[in-house]
Structures are given as C-alpha cells and as structure tokens.
Design a protein that fits this description.
single chain; about 280 residues; mainly beta; Immunoglobulin-like; 2 domains; 6-stranded mixed β-sheet; 6-stranded antiparallel β-sheet; 21 strands
Length: about 280
C-alpha cells in the first residue's frame, strides 16, 4: 500500500507541474507611460509588461501615431496628443495617449515655442441668439507674436454684461470655441470650420473684479488640430486686460472681427468691472 500511495503522489506532482508550465505563456502585454502629460521639450518613458508581470520592454517595438520609434524613451517633436502602442512578438498592446502641453504662458506651433506673457479678454458683442462673443488673446509685447481663441457664452440679462465662467469650450458647439487666429512674425495662422478638426479651450479659472482692487486674472489652456494634422497648443495664467470691441459698444450686433491684433487693443484695455452691457 505504501508503494501505491507513493506512486500516486509523484504522478500528481508531475501533473500539476505540467499545468504550471502552460500557464507561464503570456497571453497579453500592457503598455504604460511614466507620465500622462509632458511639457514640450521633455521626454517620457514607455514600459511593457506581460500579463504575468514580466518586463519585456527591451524586446518590444513602439509606435507613436502609427510611426515606429527606435527607443522606449521619446521626445515629442511638437505639442498635441500622441497615441502609442507596443508590439512584442505576436502580442499587441492597447493604445495609450500622452498629452504634450506648452510651457507656461506660451504656445507651440510646428515644434517652436512662442512666449505670450500678456493676455486680453476681448468682448466682441452679443449676437441675435443672446450669445456673447469673446476672444482669449495671448501675445508678446516685444515680438508681436499672438494667439487668439474665439469663443461664446450665454447672455441672460439685458443690462449687465455676463462674463465667462470656468468651463471647457468645444469646437463648433454653442456655447463653444469658434475660431483660431495667430500671428507669428510676419505670418498669419487661421483656423475655422473648414481647416480645423478640433479646437478646445479650457478656461480653468477666471476672476472678474467687482470693485477697485479686486483681482483680474485667469488660467486657460487651448489646443487645436488642423485638417492636415498640424497642431497648436498653448496656455496662459496670470492677470488679463479687458477690451470692449463691440460696435456700437454693448449692442446686440457682433462685428465679425477675425484679425484683432494686440497692438490695436492695448490702449483700450482696462478693468472689466467698468464695463456694462
């Protein structure tokens, strides 16, 4: 009897060892980035592990926006959102994304950073649908580089102008972002419903002064994607000036101004609380 039990014990051990060997074959891989967002000019690092928690980064191939890269460390050539996947043997990971933002108070176009240390909130007027039309304008007083995002917000009252509040403005929506206009040196950049596939303006915070001495500052980010794939990303955080560009001021007619340059706004910019609809 002892010999029979011994034989069964060995056979059982062999059986379970064989099953364990089958389980050691990975059935999937998982791709991760060390960061979800980077500032333009910085790098991010990719890691690949199997579903068995084995690191297979060294033997994997990486694709960024469907283009193979030679390393798991990547420095994005411009701003925007990058879609990444990994391949290891016959296994392909799920896609992940890494967002590349502009340095503080700047915008990035075609891999070049342009500083915008000053901003103006421009009121263009209120249209027939009771939508206030605005520009978030960021510019550089020395170089004249500028990037303007046009957007709309609801106007409910008939007397006091209702200023924007923190919100995310999506391209083509009402309210939403409507148009992108930029000046880079002697070149102009325009983005509208025909040339853009996306334009997002995220107004994170805005303080509108009610009495003298109140803060007048805001923080916003924006990103645009053109039909050809070109991207613009930018942001501003700090004090802003206010300019009433409606003609006549505060009336329910919006002039379709698409080329307001900062040089034409500086003399008229002032505190927001002084402006009533």
């Amino acid at each position: 009897m002892k010999k029979i039990f011994f034989f069964l014990a060995v056979a059982g051990s062999t059986f379970f060892t064989s099953c364990s060997s089958d389980d050691d074959v990975a059935s999937s891989i998982v791709l991760t980035s060390n960061v979800p967002t980077v500032v333009f000019g910085e790098t991010f690092t990719l890691t690949v592990k199997t579903d068995l928690a084995v690191d297979v980064t060294a033997g994997s191939q990486f694709f960024v926006n469907n283009v193979a890269i030679s390393s798991n460390v990547f420095t994005p050539p411009t701003g925007g959102t990058y879609t990444i996947r990994a391949v290891n043997g016959t296994l392909t990971s799920a896609d992940i994304t890494v967002k590349v933002t502009a340095p503080l108070n700047s915008f990035v176009v075609n891999g070049t950073v342009y500083n915008t240390e000053t901003s103006i909130l421009v009121y263009l007027g209120t249209d027939e649908n009771s939508m206030n039309n605005w520009i978030a304008a960021g510019y550089n007083a020395l170089t004249e580089n500028e990037m303007d995002v046009y957007f709309t917000t609801p106007q409910v009252g008939a007397v006091t102008l209702e200023y924007p509040t923190a919100a995310n403005f999506v391209f083509g929506a009402t309210p939403g972002s409507q148009f992108l206009y930029g000046i880079i040196g002697e070149d102009e950049l325009e983005g509208d419903e025909e040339s853009l596939t996306a334009l997002n303006l995220n107004l994170t915070t805005i303080n509108v002064p009610q009495v003298a001495g109140d803060p007048q500052n805001w923080t916003y980010t924006y990103d645009a994607v053109f039909v050809g794939g070109e991207t613009v990303v930018g942001n501003f955080s700090g004090d802003y000036l206010f300019y009433n560009a409606s003609t006549p001021a505060g009336k329910t007619t919006v002039q379709p101004i698409k080329r307001i340059h900062s040089s034409s706004l500086k003399n008229g910019a002032k505190k927001a609380y002084l402006n009533k609809k």
